[in-house]
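Researcher: Next sequence.
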Amino acid sequence: MKLALTSLLATALLAAPLAAHAQDEAPPPPLAAPPVPVLTPAAPAYEEAAPPSKATPHYDYLRLGLGFRIGYIPDPGFDTFASSDVLAQMSLEGTYAFYTQGKLAIAAGAAWDIGSRSSGARGFDTRLTVNRLTVPVAARWYFTPWLDGFVRVAPGAVGYVARVQDPSSGATLEDAPWALAADLSAGATLRLAGSSDHSVRRARLWLTGEGGYGLTGSRALRPRPDRDEADVLGSDASTRVGSLAVNGGFWRVGLAVSY
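Model: Next structure:
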């Protein structure tokens, strides 16, 4: 009996540390499974609307100008028709800008300058009318919407109408030759009225100032009476007044309307 109790007590003492050790070595709890991502349908992608492009400026597509040209003619042949070297002419011009890029505009068109001088020197009443017909080509640069500068070349022709009143016969002698001509000039225009927004086409008023040099071929003037007067007088003689070339510097001022 005593031996049995002793064995039972020994077994209990041995079982206690084994049970504690078993608890210490218990397997860790299983890892939780990662959450399954929930897929949601993506919203359809829309392309961002591009901002509206800025309209191309319309710089003086059409320009009409009216002004006055003052030329200085040092040619001795001009002295027959004027007591000074000044020739005043009215200027009429129309151009169209066929190329524009940014602040640059290149235009071409047609121009007409007309003016006359008269004199009673040397015992003759004389009168000279000068018609200058040119094709101006101008390059304009707009520094601001209200101010631009330009350079211009204008090839063309000049027509002279020379009249001499012969006091001895009362006949009017006349000659009307033509010669090649060209203008080289530069200037600026200042907007007086109209919108500063050149992205729309609107009428604008400009003040133009210009200076340059005019080239003209020399022609001999031989005024003569017309056929009817010659028959009456019984003579077809001409009067030689020398050659003439209206070369010289000039300046021009005027108003222009653009659209």
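Model: The longest strand covers residues 147-165. Residues 215 and 247 are 5 Å apart (CA to CA).
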